[in-house]
Amino acid sequence: MDALSSRVPRVLLRLLRSSPLRSFSSTSIPPQLQQAQKVGFIGLGNMGYHMANNLIRAGYLVTVHDINYDAMKKFSEKGIPSKETPFEVAETSDVVITMLPSASNVLDVYTGPNGLLHDRSCVRPWLFIDSSTIDPQTSRKLSASVSSCPLEEQKGYANTPVMLDAPVSGGVTGAEARTLTFMVGGSEEAYIAAKPLFMSMGKNIIYCGGTGNGAAAKICNNLAMAISMIGVSEALALGQSLGISASTLTSIFNSSSARCWSSDSYNPVPGVMERVPSSRNYDVGFSSKLMTKDLALALASAKEVGMNCPLASGAHEIYTELCKQGYESKDFSSVFRHFYGGKDEA
């Protein structure tokens, strides 16, 4: 018995090993898992647009939906099927992936009128993957709702549908370049089966444990990211005021102990780094509004476990202020310009 056989039910292995080969290899699962499946993708925003495109390039048969008709049109013009409702996506999909802005959007897509679960009637997809950033509690409740639905057709490897919470890190640049990190919570067997899907959209796939743990990992990651961006922006703005160019200070940071993602991969100073939001007027990135939302999720989770997070509270106040000033749609790295008054690099 191989390593995979000891972790996946025999009925699942029999079905998966009879599937056709896909075009790329993986060391963690047999190549028989690498098959073209019918995948529904819901949420075609800055991130979802690129993620769906990467699935199409990998050979999956993708059907899309978004409340923004212009977003769907970009796909329908290329011959990719689009549907009017989430329920219609579910009717034609084996797997459904959602990438949405908030928990309320996720709940509406899954359990609202014409939602994926359609009043908990029989569903066709055996696997649902939510890559949105939401709180762990909502992920766990939604997973229970998914599992309570009967499958339209028994698959042999699943008696009920399964859900994975799989939020991502890497931003729009990572989504476009297929270098995202996926943080996956839920059934380990489902995670193993879904890994080819994740590898079509990302580079690092990390299993975090049970249901909701992927969501928990993501809000912790974004908490650290927000604080890091504020710290780097504060230091660079101070350096400018003291007569040190941001480029010089960035070089120092990136070759010493201050080095971090916010300095070497997503620098907040316009003119220092190409292909990041600061180089395009802080447009098309991870908005300050979404960062404010994620920090609120982190603070709510901290409150539930009785933990005091003063840096998270301070970061939340700063991003809340940015949103109040009218910069909610600007990338969160705009804190350098719009909160600290930092200058563009000449």
From TrEMBL:
GO cellular component, one term: mitochondrion
Protein's name according to its UniProt entry: 3-hydroxyisobutyrate dehydrogenase
Family in the record: Belongs to the HIBADH-related family. 3-hydroxyisobutyrate dehydrogenase subfamily.
Catalytic activity: 3-hydroxy-2-methylpropanoate + NAD(+) = 2-methyl-3-oxopropanoate + NADH + H(+)
Record localization: Mitochondrion
GO MF annotation, one: NAD binding
Broad class of the protein's primary localization: mitochondrion
Pathway(s) annotated for this protein in UniProt: Amino-acid degradation; L-valine degradation
Catalytic-site annotation from UniProt: 218
SUPFAM superfamilies recorded: 6-phosphogluconate dehydrogenase C-terminal domain-like, NAD(P)-binding Rossmann-fold domains
Record keywords: Branched-chain amino acid catabolism, Mitochondrion, NAD, Oxidoreductase, Transit peptide
EC number(s) on file: 1.1.1.31
Domain 6-phosphogluconate dehydrogenase NADP-binding: 38-209
Limits of the 3-hydroxyisobutyrate dehydrogenase-like NAD-binding domain: 212-338
Gene name as annotated: LOC120283628
Originating organism: Dioscorea cayennensis subsp. rotundata
PANTHER family xref list: 3-HYDROXYISOBUTYRATE DEHYDROGENASE, MITOCHONDRIAL, 3-HYDROXYISOBUTYRATE DEHYDROGENASE-RELATED
One biological process term in Gene Ontology: L-valine catabolic process
Top-level EC class: oxidoreductase
